[in-house]
Every structure is written in C-alpha cells, then in structure tokens.
Amino acid sequence: MAEHPRAVGAMDDVEAVTRAVLTASRLLVAVSARSLTSVEDRVTLPQFRLLVVLSTRGAAKLVVLAERLAVSPSTAMRMVDRLIAVGLVDRRTNQDDRRETVLRLTPEGVRIVEDVMARRHQEIASIVQRLAPGQRAALIAALTAFTEAGGEPELPDRPGGLHPLGWTGA
Q1: 13 domain residue, yes or no
Q2: pTM summary value
Q3: In the predicted model, what is the mean pLDDT of residues 30-52?
Q4: How many whole angstroms separate alpha carbon 158 and alpha carbon 95?
Q5: Residue 91: φ, ψ to 5°
Q6: Three-state DSSP class for 1?
Q7: Helices (H), 36-93
Q8: DSSP-assigned beta bridge partners for residue 105
Q9: pLDDT (mean) for 30-45
Q10: Do residues 66 and 60 touch, judged by C-beta distance below 8 A?
Q11: Fewest C-beta in 10 Å: which of 17, 51, 103, 149?
C-alpha cells in the first residue's frame, strides 16, 4: 500500500527542517563555547548555566535551583559551593522567611554573565548582519514559531539588549 504523496512530502519537509535546526544548533553551540573562553578557567559550562539561571530568574533556594537546572540537589550544592568559593554566588537569609537560605549572584557573578552574553550577542549579530533583510525577517518568524512549538517562553528585554541563550529554565 503506497503512502499518500502529501504525507511523504510532509515527512521529507520535517526531516529537512530537523537537519537545518541541528546544523544551526551546532553553530549556536560553537558561538556559546567561544563566548565562554575568557571565563573557562573560572567556571565550567554547567556552572555557567547555573549563573545564567540565577541571573534570569533571580535568587532561589537550592531545591528550586536544582529543579530549574534539572539536576539533583546534591549536584546543585556542589556547583554552588564551587561558585561561592570563587566569589560568583553567595548565600543569604531569605527576607520573607528567615529559616530559609537563598542563593544569588554576587556583583562579580553578574559581571561574568553580562560579559559572556555580550560576546555571544556580538558574534550572533555579526552573523545576522550577513543575511539579507528578507532572510532576517524569515528567521525571526521561523525561530519564534520554533521556540513557541517547543514551549520556550519569550525572554523579556534586558538592559543593554542582552538575552541569555539557551537552556530550558534559564
């Protein structure tokens, strides 16, 4: 029994889009990796991810942070301890409930996130500038539809126009 021609075309289209997204994701991962080179002696990629979550979501309890990172609380605690040791995160008593401790970025942690994101922004902007205006508009529409289909919330505008790239929960 032969498949309906439209169904075959739709499947080919899905495969072509999937391949294009995977190729683009390799580029974005490379851009992300290059943006971290200046801080790689201080933080690992998973630790930087934790910094981004604190930067975008604000202070959090360890359990909440672990959930947002999709790691165990013990893994999150080890990362937090290392980041506290290098002065990028600190623990504070929760002002709303003095029995709780919350984690937040230090000014140095904020600076590192902003610096890395500025490098990412700059490199991505230089790539986007090579596209024709019509391609840019099509890319906005396609990426917006893609992120909506994946359930990723739109990021709010941030000072300086910097937007963290990346991870669910970030």
Answers
A1: no
A2: 0.74
A3: 90
A4: 25
A5: -105, 140
A6: coil
A7: 45-57, 62-69, 73-85
A8: 89
A9: 88
A10: no
A11: 149
